[in-house]
Amino acid sequence: MQAISEATIYTLWQEMNDLDPDAAIRMVEDLSDHQPLLVNYLIHTGKDFLTAEEQEFFMFLGLSIYLAFEKAGAVIPEIQREAIEAAEQRNASMVKYLSEEPESDILNTVLNIWKGYNQRGLLRFLIETIVDDEENNEMFEDDEHRAFVFIGLKTLIDCLDAICTVPEN
User: Fold this and answer.
1) pTM for this predicted structure
2) What's the average model confidence in pLDDT over 33-47?
3) Which of 104, 119, 129, 142 pairs with 10 at a CA distance of 20 to 30 A?
């Protein structure tokens, strides 16, 4: 799939921030009709690990990511378990590789990952929202929870990027 523009991402983010909480809940309920596995992923990922506030934030950001693909005009087929599992495995391998990387090489490795990443705008959005935003920083119990949310949402981006197409005009 083609990269989603930063303008699309930030316009959507403003819309989502202005959204009434009840409207967000209705959006998730509507989404569960045609993307039940996605909603299941958003509800159950980290359920026994994250705090309630972190879990709610994870779901909100996951919904935002899905809507960014939709807003970009992507054709989004129903997500299958295999697609999520494949993205999870790739991210688990990446985290393992980075954890074993000598500290002096980590920056170059991360930069290489960044250069080859198709959805850099969404990844930047996650970094700014989860890591750089002081208000959101206070929500996370610790860095392990923050990393868990980041990797879980990167998994969602990777999954959607792999299965979505954009119709030709």
Assistant:
1) 0.91
2) 94
3) 142
Mind giving me the DSSP string for 81-145? HHHHHHHHHHHHHHHHHHHHS-HHHHHHHHHHHHHT-TTHHHHHHHIIIIII-HHHHTT-SSHHH
Give the residue from 146, 142, 7, 160 showing the smallest Cα distance to 83: 160
The rounded distance, in Å, linking the Cα atoms of 29 and 35 is 10
d(CA 132, CA 79): 30
More confident residue, 105 or 82: 82
CB atoms within 10 A of CB 103: 6
pLDDT at 169: 54
Backbone angles phi, psi at 102, to 5 degrees: -60, 140
Q: Which of 122, 94, 86 is nearest to 110 (CA)?
A: 94
From residue 71, alpha-carbon distances to 49, 91, 105 in Å are: 31, 25, 37
Which is nearest to 125 in space by CA: 52, 71, 48, 45? Answer: 71
- Cα torsion at 151, 113, 137, 141 (round to 10°)? 40
